[in-house]
Amino acid sequence: MTTEGFDGFLVETRNYGATAAFWKSLGFESVLETGHGSGQWVHPAGGPYVFIVEQHEGELTTHPILRVADAEAFAPDRAPDFAQPFTPTHWGVSQALVRDPDGRTVALEAPLPGGQDDAQGGGDA
Question: pTM (2 decimals)?
């Protein structure tokens, strides 16, 4: 089994308020505010969400989040280079991080076993 396509994008920032205002100006609406410098934004026309995470240390990253139906059954034709294996998260999904051939990170998110998937999803890797 492979992925089900794009679910969202993680965008790290030094200033959550400024970045949220930028995405709002592009038509996105806030659907989840964590209260600690991160939140999920969706476009009313549909498409992938944007999950913004304020990050003050290290290099800022942006990466896609792909949906996987079942973490245990995930078996693409080419074995991925896992930076992190599937791990349960505090936002209600199991997340893995894989590297593309150039070393960029791609997040994979699957429902937790037992159907405890958080419909809002979103990653703050």
Answer: 0.85
